[in-house]
Batch of 3 targets.
Target 1
Amino acid sequence: MQPKEDLAAIKALFEENGSFVILSHCRPDGDAYGSAIGLALVLKGIGKKVEVYVEEGLQEHFQFLPGSSLLKPTPKEAPGPSTKIILVDCSNERRPGLYFESWHRKADLNFDHHIDNTRFASLNVVEPQASSTSEVIFKCIERLSLPCSKEAASNFYVGLLTDTNGFCFRPLLPETFELAAKLVRLGADPEELSIRSFRNYPLSRFFLLREVLNQTQFVENAQVAYYILTQDMYQRTGSSPGESENFLYYLQMVDSVAVAFMLEELSPMLTRLSLRSSKQFDVRTVASKFGGGGHKQAAGARLKLGLQEALKAVLSEIQALLNSTF
């Protein structure tokens, strides 16, 4: 719950300014898109000029989101000084990518739910107990008595739905389900949005998933599972990096797996790490060893190492985590 003075400051920011830019993080997921577009629709609904940016632009899979046409790739040029900057679902100022960094502009408002958020903006609304950034924003909108259209509610619902993986992942509090019910009452269609979010992928994603599952490795008595993504795999399957999201879920379906991770080749000496775990293992501690972060059961980092060096380093840290937990 935000202090009254913070809510007053956010209200003043919205009322006293006419132009806003909303940005979310690289490699966007449903919450990145849903929170950014949903907030943009709310601000446009009260007469504001709003631009929405993600460095990679809009993935084809999320074109179904109402208002998705608002979202554009982040431009190299910074907006004018009168335009206020809002970051959503970003734990630090590096998450929106290199173009935003080159703007050399401080964010005016930061909405997030990551526990390691650095509170980098002039105003920060960070609630680590929330299921998603969409939940954080919608609760703030409610407290400010701002109108939320059916289209905005649908975006917030997708953010909540995808960040909990269909209401399966923690944190899941009674308030999360109550919020979902409010969004449905505002017009969000739970069946349609669920189908669009989880059963709306191109055939190339299936081909990529087949390759991933074929090369998945199980180690540490099948307590740890992992796979590696290479640029060659994308080329062979005709897929794109955005289509590989949430593949770790399939590894976690194995009952013995406590920690699942993937390594993705970004360049010969840059590797992306993504980790998931069962509730007793805090994989954020592993990600932090490599300058990353996230949540207890979902975290990530970028390693300035080649794939094999990265694999060796990550496995060593996970082994230490297993030993310290038992």
Note: The two ends are 35 Å apart (CA to CA).
Target 2
Amino acid sequence: MADEIDSPNDLPAAAGGLAENYPEIWDAYADLGKACSGAGEIDGETKRLVKLALAVGSQSEGAVHSHVRRGLEEDIDPETLRHVALLAIPTVGFPKGMAALTWIDDLAE
């Protein structure tokens, strides 16, 4: 998956600013993402769902939005993306799972 890290033009302001001001750091970060993505045998949709789950668990609204947006671009069903938030409820708690569900719905509705 070559698109594991957004291009600088597609990033939120803070990350885009880092990419513009420190391109060597951004390039190293993007290379790390590509290397991690290619290091195993997990298929593309499963990788996206795992990355979404990690974003949900870390309560990163920006990362949730990023992975939902990419998932939708990759034709992952919105209900499948929502299921990730529901699966998180027993592990991270009801309020955090519900917050993630609202973040997913920001883009999936």
Note: The chain has two domains: 1-40, 43-109.
Target 3
Amino acid sequence: MTADELKTIIAAGLPCEHIELEGDGRHWFATIVSPEFEGKRAVWRHQRVYRTLGDKMHTDEVHALSMKTFTPAEWASQPRQSS
């Protein structure tokens, strides 16, 4: 699976303002920003992302997904590194 494919699947199942993905095709690290995360704990947020992937996690198309999840306000307050 490519990063673009994974991004498309997540975005189709969850309203996202921002998605960043890094990985090797099976092991991924994601940063996901969604207004749906507002008022939700980290466990719920991660479970919500896993639900968008459905069988992709069970069939090993995505072997591992680590993630950081933010609301838009949390994301806006994150320090950014300038290039």
Note: The longest strand covers residues 27-33.
